Amino acid sequence: MDRNEKLSDHFTFGELIRSETAERKNIDNSPPDHLIVKLQRLCSEILEPVRLHYGKPFRPNSGYRSTELNSEINGSSSSQHCKAEAVDIEIAGISNYELAVWIEQNLEFDQVILECYRKGEPNSGWVHVSLKDEETTNRAIVLTYSNGSYSNGLLA
Ligand SMILES: [Zn+2]
After folding, report:
1. Closest CA relative to residue 142, chosen from 125, 133, 129
2. Is residue 4 part of a domain?
3. Is 120 contained in some domain?
4. What percent of the chain is modeled with pLDDT above 70?
5. Which residue segment(s) compose the domain that 19 sits in?
6. 43-58 residue pLDDT tens
7. Which residue, 115, 12, 98, is CA-closest to 50?
8. Is the pTM of this model over 0.90?
9. pLDDT, mean of residues 1-14
């Protein structure tokens, strides 16, 4: 699939697989074909509704990660990024805490994790969102990750 090909109105295949680390280290981060439908699902069910609500363009980070890329960045071995089930989002000018709350209240998801957010710094950190395939029940888990540990709920 061509990197410029659109997976949905506002997001391209390239945006869901791009990685500075992969480029720098020459790691192939192309997903197997059967995972592309899951990246499309992340676009239509998560990224497009966020884009529509905030009305601002943004580039997702860390959609798909190949096993090789994931180990290079010391990602969790069970990372949903490796299954094309997760994407990390930040939107310029929007507090990541508010973004996480909006997703929690408005979208279906498997996990929402407010990661590395620091109170009083709206742009700090990012929001990790995952979604299972259509046949699998989403767990609706909401967590905050900070200083190396997870807490339940969204903590500002
Ligand atoms: Zn993530």
Report:
1. 129
2. no
3. yes
4. 100
5. 13-152
6. 999 999 999 999 999 9
7. 98
8. yes
9. 95
Ligand 1 center to 103 CA (angstroms): 15
Q: Residue 98: which CATH number?
A: 3.30.1380.10
Q: Give the HSE-up count for residue 48: Cα atoms under 13 Å, Cβ half-sphere.
A: 14
70 lies in some domain:
yes
Neighbours of ion ligand 1 (CB under 5 A): 88, 128
For residue 75, how far is its CA from the centre of ligand 1 (angstroms)?
9
Mean pLDDT of the chain, nearest integer: 95
The structure tokens listed for 47 are 């990224």
Tell me, in angstroms, the distance from the centre of ligand 1 to residue 120's CA.
22
Instruction: For residues 16-37, give the mean pLDDT.
Output: 94
Q: Which two tokens stand for residue 139?
A: 């767990």
| Residue 62 pLDDT greater than 90, yes or no | no
Chain centroid to CA 128: 5
- Between the CA of 142 and the centroid of ligand 1 the distance, in Å, is 13
- Domain assignment present for residue 3? The answer is no
> What's the number of domains the chain is made of?
1
